[in-house]
Specification:
- The chain has six helices and five strands, in the order H-E-H-H-E-H-H-E-E-E-H.
- By secondary structure, the protein is α+β, with helices and mostly antiparallel strands.
- The strands form two sheets. The chain has a three-stranded antiparallel sheet with strand order 2-4-3.
- Strand 3 and strand 4 form a beta hairpin.
- Helix 4 crosses helix 5.
- The two termini are 16 Å apart.
């Protein structure tokens, strides 16, 4: 997610299937969930950590510097908003199965203003 909108040079990648692009109007319920979950610093830090590398909830808690319970809360919100998904499993040293989280594929744009219909043409 290096840029919010495709530049002229990026459009061919979107048009050729180089990535899924979801465009949401601001008043969409999904856009509301997305904005609400990203208001928290911990959620944004968690998402940024997952953009660098997939991780378990406990690894994310260490990386972000918060409790496991807090990270799990934000992971649930990020999953509900369609930004994070379970990408695998891992086993702890005690043999417990742990979910490994990663970011979802593709790009997401929330539109404000009159250009929203023009941007939706890229979907």
């Amino acid at each position: 997610m290096s840029t919010l909108l495709p530049s002229d040079t990026d459009r061919s990648a979107v048009e050729e299937g180089g990535g899924d692009l979801r465009v949401l109007p601001l008043d969409d319920d999904e856009a509301g969930r997305l904005i609400n979950c990203l208001t928290a610093d911990t959620a944004r830090s968690t998402l940024a950590a997952l953009q660098r590398e997939s991780a378990t909830a406990s690894e994310l808690a260490d990386a972000v510097g918060t409790s496991l319970q807090n990270v799990r809360h934000h992971l649930d919100s990020l999953r509900d908003a369609g930004l994070v998904r379970v990408v695998g499993t891992k086993y702890s040293v005690k043999g417990r199965e742990m979910k490994v989280y990663g970011t979802t594929e593709g790009s997401l744009v929330v539109c404000v203003g009159e250009d929203s219909e023009r941007l939706r043409a890229f979907e």
